[in-house]
Automatic annotation (TrEMBL):
Keyword terms of this UniProt record: Membrane, Transmembrane, Transmembrane helix
Taxonomy, superkingdom: Eukaryota
Localisation: Membrane
Lineage of source species: Eukaryota, Viridiplantae, Streptophyta, Embryophyta, Tracheophyta
The protein's name in its UniProt record: Protein NRT1/ PTR FAMILY 3.1-like
Gene Ontology CC entries for this record: membrane
A Pfam family reported for this protein in Swiss-Prot or TrEMBL: PTR2
Record SUPFAM superfamilies: MFS general substrate transporter
PANTHER family the UniProt entry points to: OLIGOPEPTIDE TRANSPORTER-RELATED
UniProt record, GO biological process: oligopeptide transport
Length: 582
């Protein structure tokens, strides 16, 4: 991975110089996704005339599907084509979806006619119009499925963990990544949402479509600079091979010494470039996959074993690492469920409140999440510049605190966010009742929308801690050859969180319905519902989730890895060292 540099020697590929090319792709993807999603519920209710609960579930279902497809993109990347080509092809698919979505917003025949003036009689979008919308969103979901897990892992790949000059930059990269992503999201929820509400949906979707095209050209243009890691074969196949081998040898007694388990550095070379996983004492059943039987001893020198019968310790530990990550991964689902309410019910709250900054300027309801992302950005800067140096002084860790502690802080802040949201909803309803507008759902209640700022800001603070910690956790603790797949797990948690939100909304809407038309989540009049109860239900669920997470974090075992240290970036390998990279 060396290239000539002006005849004065060689320069390693990767490093900071690649970041603008990689971040350009991520910025455009976030502009497109967030620029539409932040205001999607408005588009569905005002342009396609969907009922509120149906629109809310459509938003979260689409978000869930878009977060599910990264599993497919990660699999193709890790197993066959590598991260660069996965991102490139996925970006082109995404571009096609954006073009189709823009056309659906521009062409009148792809939307139902406007509501009848004065009667509020609205015709809901027909099957064909909804189908066009969903096809464009599906292409976008497939495209983002290749971009999301691979861009973040591809960026981290540009820093060589074995190089002392670069290995400390990997964890900093996740802060940079989330900061750049946050800035692009901030632009999306302000500039793009303003264009959608005041200029038109055609330009509101056309701008990110053009930006996506530019980013594709930029990303491909950086190819000569990238540090590309070759795909190492299907990670899922390797995991299944270990399980099958362990099951076939389930009746064998365990060996007395783990050193007797099968090792083959040559076989594992392509999947352990950064270091070999060492044996752990947990989940001993899977160790049976590495027991060498008399039949296995018949192998000729240099002959590869049947991996459905015999696996190396490294491959067994890959499976153990993935299993150990599962409980921590699951804890992140409910935080996304809480966070998802910003794009549905919090937005609907904002639409009923006074959003004027001045007599002539009103903040679009979809732009209220600007407070989430601005707080997230400020928290990231505070964390990187102030919190880490102070924490490093006490903990001795280069990153200040480990990612499990960082995630725990995020969970606690998220609990406070939904608790506060419930009290603010009570205040909003009291204002509606005092002004006599509780029976007028389309009227603006004389209460400032800035009362919603605390819940938005707390969610942003929680994301800066929890989501970045989650990314660090997956990249650091996943087997090296499965890092795209690990990034997909991050998005899978987001997918499940959105689906749980849809399920929770449906259950609450059904179970809270009264014979007199009362409901916690009313479609036609939010002020006559009990949205605060819904927020407090999520708060209670998050408290239980935090207790669960603390138990999982307490019991979690960091992966032990044997890495080769390098001095000064030279090609000479130093001594071997055992590192729990926390």
């Amino acid at each position: 991975m060396m290239e000539k540099k002006g005849g004065h020697g060689t320069r390693k590929k990767g490093g900071l110089v690649t970041m603008p090319f990689i971040f350009a792709n991520e910025v455009s993807e976030k502009l497109a996704v967030v620029g539409f999603n932040a205001n999607m519920i408005s588009y569905l209710t005002t342009q396609l005339h969907m009922p509120l609960t149906k629109a809310a579930n459509t938003v979260t279902n689409i978000g869930g599907t878009a977060s599910l497809t990264p599993l497919l993109g990660a699999f193709l990347s890790d197993a066959y084509v590598g991260r660069f080509w996965t991102v490139t092809v996925a970006s082109i698919i995404y571009q096609i979806g954006m073009i189709l979505l823009t056309l659906s917003a521009v062409l009148p025949q792809l939307r139902p006619p406007p509501c009848e003036v004065g009667t509020q009689v609205c015709q809901e979008a027909d099957f064909g119009q909804v189908a066009i919308l969903y096809i464009s969103l599906l292409l976008g979901a497939l495209g983002s499925g290749g971009i999301r897990p691979c861009v973040v892992a591809f960026g981290a790949d540009q820093f060589d963990e074995a190089d002392p000059k670069q290995n400390t930059k990997t964890w900093k990269y996740f802060n940079w990544y989330y900061f750049v992503m946050g800035v692009s999201i901030l632009v999306a929820v302000t500039v793009l949402v303003y264009i959608q509400d005041n200029v038109g949906w055609g330009w509101g979707l056309g701008v990110p479509t053009i930006a996506m095209l530019i980013s594709i050209v930029t990303f491909i243009g950086g190819y000569p600079l990238y540090r590309n890691l070759d795909p190492a074969g299907s990670p899922f196949t390797r995991l299944v091979q270990v399980m099958v081998a362990a099951y076939r040898k389930r009746k064998l007694p365990m060996v007395s010494d783990p050193k007797l388990l099968y090792q083959n550095d040559e076989l594992d070379a392509s999947i352990s470039l950064g270091g070999k996983l060492l044996h752990t004492k947990h989940m001993k059943f899977f160790d049976k996959a590495a027991i060498v039987t008399e039949e296995d001893k018949q192998l000729k020198y240099g002959e590869a074993p049947n991996l459905w019968r015999l696996n190396t310790v490294h491959r067994v530990e890959e499976l153990k690492s993935v299993i150990r990550m599962g409980p921590i991964w699951a804890a992140g689902i409910l935080l996304i469920t809480a966070y998802a309410q910003q794009g549905t019910f919090s937005l609907q709250q904002a639409k009923t409140m006074d959003r004027h900054l001045s007599k002539s300027f009103e903040i679009p309801a979809g732009s209220m999440s600007v407070f989430t992302y601005s707080t997230m950005l400020l928290t990231i800067v505070f964390y990187d510049r102030i919190f880490i140096p102070v924490a490093r002084h006490f903990s001795g860790l280069d990153r200040g605190i480990n990612f499990l502690h960082r995630m725990g802080i995020g969970f606690a802040i998220s609990i406070l966010a939904t608790l506060v949201a419930g009290f603010i909803e009570v205040k909003r309803k009291n204002a509606a009742m005092a002004s006599g507008l509780i029976d007028h759902p389309h009227s603006i209640i004389p209460i400032s929308a800035f009362w919603l700022v605390p819940q938005y800001s707390l969610h942003g603070m929680a994301e800066a801690f929890m989501s970045i910690g989650h990314l660090e956790f997956f990249y650091d603790q996943a087997p090296e050859s499965m890092r795209s797949t690990a990034m997909a797990l991050f998005w899978l948690a987001i997918s499940f969180g959105n689906y749980v939100s849809s399920l929770l909304v449906s259950i609450v809407h059904k179970c809270s319905a009264g014979p007199n038309g009362s409901n916690w989540l009313k479609d036609d009049n939010l002020s006559k519902g009990k949205l605060e109860y819904f927020y407090w239900l999520i708060t209670l669920l998050q408290v239980v989730n935090l207790i669960y997470y603390l138990c999982c974090a307490k019991l979690y075992t960091f992966k032990p890895i044997q890495i080769k240290s390098k001095e000064g970036g030279s090609s000479e390998e130093g001594g071997m060292e055992l590192a729990n990279r926390v």
